[in-house]
Design goal:
The complex is a heterodimer of chains A (about 55) and B (about 180).
Chain A (H helix, E strand, L loop, with lengths): L7 E3 H15 L3 E6 L4 H6 L5 H4 L3
Chain B lengths: L3 E4 L3 H13 L3 E6 L9 H14 L9 E6 L14 H5 L5 E4 L9 H6 L5 E6 L8 E3 L29 H13 L7
Parallel strand pairs in B: 2-3, 3-5, 4-5
Classes of the chains: A alpha+beta (about 55), B alpha/beta (about 180).
Chain lengths: ~55, ~180
């Protein structure tokens, strides 16, 4: 793979992936918080977890 | 139990429930959408979350992670923009993290959730509106919290920042480079 082909992502994307990892790795992990079902959040949603998508 | 719990808009209830769950053996990741509203949870964070482990002489009793967002530049107003991490950082027993771009060895929330002590993970609002990208992290890779990352090398000026201002510092370094100064 060349340097120009190195995959990149933003911190927000990396954090979502990290939470995916955390949920998969440990059944004691869970997320809690308020949801914000705004049109913007819905439009950005690629993830079934509303707590995370609320900030999108 | 659902792995994602939707809560009322009550920051005290969110943090209080998360502390109770953490003490009971769970590993909650609590979302406080805007950092200003952590102010209403300060008693729980300062007097319960961080001190519970200290009171009983053990360092592994409250594996609580709090995510929150704040920062100027998005026009969210005064009560949605204050950066209060200095308050938190002055509290022994409470770990505060402010990241900016992922690195190949950085999956920040993963690192935090594995901690056994309370942590607050602070994200800048503007990172949700086109934050800078970095190398995609490798699955399972981690870096130690509390160790500085050198973004670029230079010998004339040292710029130190955390969180989103790192992006601004890189911009300053670029401008200085155009004037012949090498910034670290």
């Amino acid at each position: 793979m060349t340097a120009t082909e190195t995959p990149t992502m933003t911190l927000v994307e990396a954090t979502r992936l990290a939470l995916d990892d955390a949920l998969a790795a440990d059944p004691a992990v869970f997320l809690l918080g308020r949801t914000s079902p705004t049109p913007r959040a819905a439009a950005c949603s690629t993830h079934p977890r509303p707590v995370l998508e609320a900030r999108c | 139990m659902s792995r994602v719990r939707s809560t009322p808009i009550s920051e005290q209830a969110i943090i209080g429930a998360a502390i109770g769950a953490a003490v009971a053996g769970m590993r909650p990741v609590a979302e406080i959408m805007l950092m200003n509203f952590l102010a209403v949870c300060m008693d729980q964070l300062f007097n319960h979350a961080r001190q519970t482990a200290l009171h009983v002489g053990r360092a592994d009793d409250v594996p609580l992670t709090v995510r929150t967002v704040t920062g100027a530049g998005a026009g969210f107003g005064a009560q949605h923009s204050d950066m209060l991490e200095a308050w938190l950082a002055h509290a022994p027993g409470l770990k505060v993290v402010g990241a900016v771009v992922p690195g190949r060895r950085l999956r920040p929330a993963q690192r935090l959730h594995l901690r056994r002590r309370p942590c607050v993970f602070v994200e800048h609002t503007l990172l949700y509106y086109g934050g800078a990208a970095g190398p995609a992290p490798e699955r399972g890779a981690r870096i130690p919290i509390g160790r500085a990352n050198t973004v670029r090398e230079g010998s004339d000026v040292t710029l130190i920042a955390y969180g989103k201002p790192v992006i601004d510092a890189v911009g300053v370094a670029d401008a200085l480079a155009g004037r012949g100064s090498a910034s670290r």
